[in-house]
Amino acid sequence: MPFRLPARKRDTVRSGLAFLGIAGLMALVLGLGITNLKRSNNKHATKENDALMTLSRPDLVLNVGGGAPPQPIPGTLQPGQAALNIIYTVGKLDPIAEKTARIFIEFYPVGTLSPFNGTDLNDWADSLGSTPALAAFTVTTSYKTFTFRAGERPLRQEQTMVIGDADRYPLDHQDLEDYITATYVDPATNRSTLLPVTVVDDSWQQGWNFVRDPTDSANSPTVGAAGSAQPAWNFALIAKRNATTKILSFGIIGLMWLLSLTYFVVGFRVVSTDRKVDLTVAALGATLMFGMNALRSVQPGIPPTGCIADTFGYMWNMCLLALCCIIAVAHYLWRIDRLPQLPPPPQPPQPQYKEVA
To answer: Which residues span the membrane (predicted)?
Structure first.
């Protein structure tokens, strides 16, 4: 005879397994979130280090320590040359409400525009954020003009860029383009002179990946691996939804299809077998219809109803649920009409009164 646990112990084991399953699922979600956060931070830190190595700079050395000799870092500036490094950061993409991108721009004058004369790479990088410009210069973008005086430390500036909408969510992408030029007053001639610029992208935002467009000046063969200042810089960036956003979006679309098809199967079985049905079946469909909108809103960064993700699932799911609700109510009313009519209950006998003469 096979061994079987008592009913109470079976319930305890089932409850324990359910608890372990829920705890494992929560641990998995938490682990994925922490891993994604660490990966994003590491990616951003690596991007900042790469940006430092692509700036226009004089010849410098890198002190690695440990008694090792300094490593020469060849620069891209010739003696007596001035240049301007620009850190370009897309701070906030809003393709839903305002359809704009918030841009932060940082300016770092180098060469003869900077008073720093050290040769150490780390010291040079630290001096970028605190060194004032030795001459007045002007930067012109496609959206704004920035002017700085001599002796002034250029502060971070902000501009707004018009972008497209999010109708193709989660497969949408935004093209960010800007044309940047700069001039400065040459102290030797006291004339406005073209100032070569180098633009480095430092954009990062949760849910987006930023990729250089092939038309960006960074892909020009004259720039090279170490970065070379250009007379004018065409900044072109493509912002796409990252893999996490796409996986979550299509996963939720799959869940909406699963819910609506499950209710469709329930309704089909009830109607096809002519089973007794009450209004709770229709109420279940109505509840799913209201809950479907809440499930749709879980998709990260989804725009209002009408995007391409809705044409994959949400609109069809709502129509399917509404149709099943109507069929369930119609079947309920049809079965009521087919119920046998019960005879009226017998009336109690009426008392008879006899008239007395």
So the answer is: 12-34, 247-265, 315-334
| Residue 32 resides in a domain | yes
Taking each helix axis as running N to C, give the angle between helix 243-272 and helix 279-296, from 0 to 180 degrees, rounded to the nearest 10.
Answer: 170
Model-level pTM?
A: 0.74
Distances (CA, A) of 74 to 53, 119, 331: 10, 11, 82
Same domain, 77 and 203: yes
CA distances from 154 to 125, 127, 139, 298 (A): 16, 13, 11, 42
Task: Indicate if 108 and 232 belong to the same structural domain.
Answer: yes
Residue type, 74: P
Range of the domain at 38: 22-53
- What b-and-e string marks burial along 91-117, b requiring 16 or more CB atoms within 10 Å of the CB? eebebeeeeebbbbbbbbbbbbbbeee
Yes or no: say if 110 and 180 are a contact pair by the CB < 8 Å rule: no
Interval 263-281: pLDDT, tens: 988 888 877 777 776 777 7
Residues 169 and 269 in one domain: no
Q: 277-329: per-residue pLDDT in tens?
A: 677 778 888 889 999 999 999 999 999 998 999 999 999 999 999 998 888 88
Q: Indicate the SS3 state at residue 327.
A: helix
